[in-house]
Amino acid sequence: MNSKEFSNPAELKDTRISDSFWRGIQETVRTEMLPYQWAALNDRIPGAAKSWCMRNYRVAGEMIRSGKERHYAGDYGFYREPEGVEQPDEFYGWVFQDSDFSKWVEAVAYSLTLHPDEKLEQTADEAIDIVCAAQREDGYLDTYYILGGMDGALTNMRDHHEMYCLGHLIEGAVAYHQATGKDQLLRAACRYADWAAERLGRGEGQKRGYPGHEIAEMALVRLYQETGEKKYLDFAKYFVDERGQSPNYFDLEAEARGAKKTDLSYNQAHIPVREQSEAVGHAVRAMYLYAGMADVARLTGDESLLDACGRLWKSVVREKLYITGGVGGTHVGEAFSDPYDLPNDAAYSETCAAIGLAFFARRMLQIHPKAEIADVMEMALYNTVIAGMAMDGKSFFYVNPLESVPEHVKKDRRLDHVKTVRQKWFGCACCPPNIARTTLSLGAYAWTVSEDTIYTHLYAGGEIKAKMNGKDIRLEIQSGFPWDGNVKVTVRAEEPVSGTLAFRLPGWCENSRIEAGNVSREERDGYLYLSGEWTDGQEIRLSFPMKVRTVRANPNVRADQGKVAVRRGPLTYCAEEADNGKGLHLWRLTGEKTEETEMEIAGRKVVGLKMSAMKTVVPEDAPLYSETEPEEEAGTLTMIPYYAWDNRGEGEMSVFVRV
Amino acid sequence: MNSKEFSNPAELKDTRISDSFWRGIQETVRTEMLPYQWAALNDRIPGAAKSWCMRNYRVAGEMIRSGKERHYAGDYGFYREPEGVEQPDEFYGWVFQDSDFSKWVEAVAYSLTLHPDEKLEQTADEAIDIVCAAQREDGYLDTYYILGGMDGALTNMRDHHEMYCLGHLIEGAVAYHQATGKDQLLRAACRYADWAAERLGRGEGQKRGYPGHEIAEMALVRLYQETGEKKYLDFAKYFVDERGQSPNYFDLEAEARGAKKTDLSYNQAHIPVREQSEAVGHAVRAMYLYAGMADVARLTGDESLLDACGRLWKSVVREKLYITGGVGGTHVGEAFSDPYDLPNDAAYSETCAAIGLAFFARRMLQIHPKAEIADVMEMALYNTVIAGMAMDGKSFFYVNPLESVPEHVKKDRRLDHVKTVRQKWFGCACCPPNIARTTLSLGAYAWTVSEDTIYTHLYAGGEIKAKMNGKDIRLEIQSGFPWDGNVKVTVRAEEPVSGTLAFRLPGWCENSRIEAGNVSREERDGYLYLSGEWTDGQEIRLSFPMKVRTVRANPNVRADQGKVAVRRGPLTYCAEEADNGKGLHLWRLTGEKTEETEMEIAGRKVVGLKMSAMKTVVPEDAPLYSETEPEEEAGTLTMIPYYAWDNRGEGEMSVFVRV
Lengths: 659, 659
Hints:
Two copies of one chain form a homodimer. Chain A is α+β, with helices and mostly antiparallel strands. In chain A, strands 5, 16, 17, 18, 19, 20, 22, 23 and 24 form a nine-stranded antiparallel sheet that branches. In chain A, strands 1-6-7-11-14-13 form a six-stranded mixed sheet. In chain A, strands 2-8-9-10-15-12 form a six-stranded antiparallel sheet, with no helix packed on it. In chain A, a hairpin with a 2-residue loop joins β17 and β18. The longest helix of chain A has 22 residues, at 20-41. β16 (548-553) of chain A pairs antiparallel with β21 (625-626) of chain B, so a sheet runs across the interface.
């Protein structure tokens, strides 16, 4: 591996998204979600469960200022509410509540980059003051133990989230530094990272711990890239290397606490990461870990680690991926199920896990651009990730089923994890802010850049500026995605620039056509590499016709036998009760005719599909079992993009349809 | 309703089962299960969890003898194990552990009737001595509170099982009295029933309680029929009438205990029984209640109660019945799921619930013989009930799924309730002894008798003696069931007897043929009534050709769309890995050709089926999703009777198959 060849995500300030599809989503996030989220962090949402997030920081700041410390009297558990009256010096909320601020400030940073806003920046600066005031002199910054007693710190890395909060703090701090140039939060993040690095490791007097919930791995790599301090890369590498080693740290730690051992595959800590080949356990944790592993592999040139990433990637996309780009087949542990177990109605498919999949994919693309990897990243981003948010930005799915029959879901306690409509916000506020930070930083997924190449992975409309072999170049992109596959790229350069523009050839398109004039063309791993001298005004026209495709799951997927999913371009489709009435399982596609039709959902235009189908007639007063073949009547099944479901009231939905 | 018209089950001593199918099962139960069960009750099974059943009775007997009483210091919970050393005067085991003895003694009684055995009878007599010695002077007989403190008695009727234990005690006592003429246990049961009737009711100083787990209703009716004491019928009727009345007794009782309210539909106590129309809650409880309701309706001529039974019957068979005769679609509360929710892999379908369905069906048949009711009783008995026991009588299923992929089931914690092979015995010993008492008393399901009519509901080979209009008549039956539908009935009578022989015309047979000579024939509700004068040696020949039938579930059943189940005669079939290899979901029946074939499973002959089918080819290294239609290869799918599955090692099984 030659790390010189690897690309880096486009710096957000050098990108702009202007197509109506993503721009609309980003605007919804900016205008709806960010203010809502800030109100939530400050417990100003009437009727919502309290977050206590900013309040915990404030209270911790008081304690730091006063010089008092609480004696650690044992674990507060995952979630803590006041018993009776709220005490002015106690921690409340989820064990990872601090990270809510970090996710918010990260999204704010991206928003400020894309859309400067003095007032928002001021709000963020004030919030950062509050957070930094809560940092202990030694650098520690987790209000759970600052308020609960520092003797508890790093005694339960398996279940508690100090390193998770550190990770998110770093992500937020780096983003804010990049967006504003202000380094107050970055310095705080460094100090907390230094605190942790001093105490965790293989040296004498250090604990050989690592995060129970991964994210610090990739965050520390980002901190290294931002600060140039190699110690942060080393720390990330230590976390990756130490995970799952024997004797198992989490088991030793549990024993020391007198706690029960748990299934370590939940935390991907059952064996060392280089020996892992199957994606297992809590899906978000797994995705964050694999992304961090890819980061470390890229920057250290570690082939065995990259091999593990490749095996785990294959495990996900070959055996454990929903056609919606979601992952996590079971609510038990919010986890991957076993290979090919992809139930539609009971799917977990957490929004955050699909986001994590995009993280992992982007990092794999940085190392080795392959269209099949970008296809999966696109599938996650255009389907499950944005399905997580209502089109008005006001409600959210954590769990993204591929089939929902509300009347049944509400009665079936086995489906308690499934919601039939998006929810306002959640006490455990992981998915909504994750959607915010991901969609606002879309440019970093659409484009990556190396010394001499600009990679276009996603066809968002907008622009990207970069250095190509040291010279400035800018691409202006007009894109019809996801509705049509026509893309025009116009080169802007003050002087001619030599180098390569690499464009992904989507796997879903069999007859892409690319007109690029007089440059050399080379196709490799599903990317078209156009190399030559680029001059101002030069145009590249890409055409990726979006045929409606019926896709079958591998025969090993028991849940989908005899069924197909419908896709068009990057989008996966679903049938909804709003168009088709109840009893979606009664429909069977005949494949005879498919018409594309413009529809409006929640005020936005989408391409719907009208597909020839037969519907089983349910006879009046029919017996439960009968030898009679059911009658069918001909009809048309209307399908809409999956991401747009549940924007027209509660109703049935199904992705897979019988054929 | 004219209760004169109703039939009663044949007295077991007047029946004999001699066909190889049922006789084989009865012999297995008699020779394998009864001795094993007795050893289990006495904690003599090496390696098995202790039952403590007979031990609790012994210890309670000591306490009674000594005149000591324990002060009630609170609830022991559902299950209690020694903390450290076993105390000589404490209750251990399940709250309903006493009933294990009662179920055993009931099965022993049937066994003694069919197959006298002095040694077994002596063992039973000794056990009865032990049990009766544990009865308090006031009549109370539940070791949980005798040992735990009598102040706890009747303080938690919702969750605890005093009335359930009473019910089983009565069933066992009546059966033993009928089998041996001995009344020691019957007197004990009466005294305990009297104790309860004195304390429960609408009178002053009485509690308006009723059983949390039903069975006492039908047991008390049986006690009434055995003793002629109408007070027991009244007590049963009180239980039925009071259930679900407002204010809810279970809620009031919970409040008094400081316990939480629970979902009362679990106990069928959410509304009064006469207002119930949907079968809900714990399936075994529901079945036992409905059976008791039918008993009370029959003997009191209560039309509104019978109407409720009719509605509940319809709810079960129209919306909530598996094609295997099992009921209970969800493990959550071991309960009925909502209408048409009949998942195959996650089915609960408890063996005891299928047994309860047979109880309910038999009672409905006593009131109004309809073939469609007997069809369901037959479906339960010939499929799920006997699937509950391995062919060698040594292992048992509680849960009877319609689809099992062991490799997956073992990994999927959502299917923790499903076992991939039958288990040796269970701490909660409900199903095995229930199979024992039901299969040994098969005669009481095959035939019911009224003043002038002998009803044949099931075509077991054997004989039935009865009075017909006061005169003795005996039927000798030769039957090919369940393998062929040829039945010969020979009348034995010392003098000519006038009356009716009613034969069920199975709903699964379209072209039954019955030759009966010179008698009047009338078909009503699927029964053929042959009336006239019957003389010795007269023969009736019945022919019910057993065509292989492919049966579809109602289109509302989401789990079974595009699939069929295969039935032949009373049997439902399934495909097993042992015959077809792994990947049963890959098969699709073409309907082209079906051959019947004699197979041997666990040393017994069964009719297997070889059916034309196509099997999807799983390509090597195939992607998870693809536009390519999968290839299929022609083959033959072998199907065996469902009851016989899992007798050839662990493997996949599926009842429903794609078409």
